[in-house]
Design brief:
By secondary structure, this protein is α/β, with parallel strands linked by helices. It is 36% helix and 15% strand.
Length: 343
């Protein structure tokens, strides 16, 4: 019995060895075919090596042995898959209709009944207003006049503009006539009072920041008063001064910011033009800046600082203190107001 079992085991062992030898031979043969005929092997094996990866054009099974044969462009593309679409020029945006480079939007003027100007002191007589008054010429216009300076300067400090840390004196006493020795604050008030009467005679509503020289008003006080009246124009009436006695002529100063910063240069040009037309003075033009407290605190309304001429120039000193010349200035101011839009 034992002999029979041993004989069977030997026969099976021999069969297993033969089977293993056959299997190894087949594997070796397959490898040889793969190496000798790679394209044929790919077709026979059905490995799917010809499939593309999500339409990128690159195969899903690139072997490590083939990586050195991949062109540089292919290698680069593999780092930034998928390959970028060729420089498709950006789709041009439809041309936008230019939205008018919005000059600062003018607020809709709410038609509120504006209070009548309080009576003010005046030394101007009806005789000085020597031309016929037309009460309809300036009807509906509102103006604030600020005769600059005052008898006594106030050197206390105030902010040059809202929120600014820069400080300036509240007000100064101004310059003085080189020939007449009349102080600027007196000339400014004389013109302001005459202009008030001239404008009111033509239907304009007029407010003055002061009607006497003995006041204590800072530049902020004056600006806030003007803003409260919501005028078509805030006119700060001044005379200029310089160490150069040859300088003469009219100059207009405006803020370089605020609600009307885009319109102010043109409006200031009108003002200079009209004053020079009626007086014959030299026109120095319009200057925009941020150094004037009285303008910086009144940027919600059309505000202008007017230098009517130089008291330090002998000829203009005599003219600026002459009522006849002051009347010419009044006509120029009135012509400017007539051109201004009503708010």
């Amino acid at each position: 019995m034992k002999n029979k079992i041993g004989s069977l085991i030997k026969q099976h062992s021999r069969g297993i060895r033969i089977g293993l030898i056959f299997a190894f031979s087949l594997i070796a043969l397959t490898g040889a075919v793969q190496i000798a005929f790679p394209p044929l092997y790919g077709q026979i094996s059905g490995s799917g090596s010809g499939e593309t990866v999500h339409g990128t054009g690159w195969t899903s099974a690139v072997r490590e042995t083939a990586s050195t044969a991949v062109p540089e462009t292919t290698a680069a593309a593999s780092e930034t898959a998928p390959e970028p679409t060729p420089a498709a020029s950006p789709t041009p945006k439809p041309t936008e209709t230019p939205t008018k480079a919005a000059p600062s939007p003018k607020p809709t003027a709410v038609p509120t009944a504006k209070p009548t100007a309080a009576p003010a002191e005046t030394t101007t007589t009806a005789a000085v207003l020597d031309d016929p008054a037309d009460p309809s010429l300036l009807a509906g216009h509102v103006v604030v006049l600020d005769p600059g300076h005052q008898t006594k300067a106030n050197h206390d400090l105030e902010a040059i503009s809202p929120g600014s840390a820069t400080m300036k004196a509240k007000t100064s006493s101004g310059t003085t006539g080189i020939v007449t020795h009349i102080p600027e604050y007196q000339v400014n008030l004389a013109v302001g009072l005459m202009l008030r009467d001239y404008l009111e005679a033509r239907g304009c509503t007029v407010y003055l920041t002061r009607t006497t020289n003995d006041v204590d008003l800072s530049n902020i006080d004056r600006a806030q008063f003007a803003v409260s009246k919501d005028p078509d124009a805030y006119l700060r009436i001044h005379c200029n001064g310089s160490t150069n006695q040859n300088l003469h002529g009219v100059g207009i100063y405006i803020a370089d910011s605020g609600l009307y910063k885009d319109q102010l240069p043109a409006w200031g040009g009108w003002l200079a033009e009209e004053l020079c037309r009626t007086t014959g003075a030299a026109n120095h033009g319009v200057f925009a800046g941020n150094t004037y407290t009285g303008l910086n605190w009144a940027t919600e309304i059309p505000s202008f600082l007017v230098e009517m001429g130089y008291l330090t120039n002998p000829d203009e000193d005599r003219l600026l203190t002459d009522p006849a010349y002051q009347m010419k200035l009044c006509r120029g101011y009135a012509a400017f107001i007539a051109r201004m839009p009503k708010r």
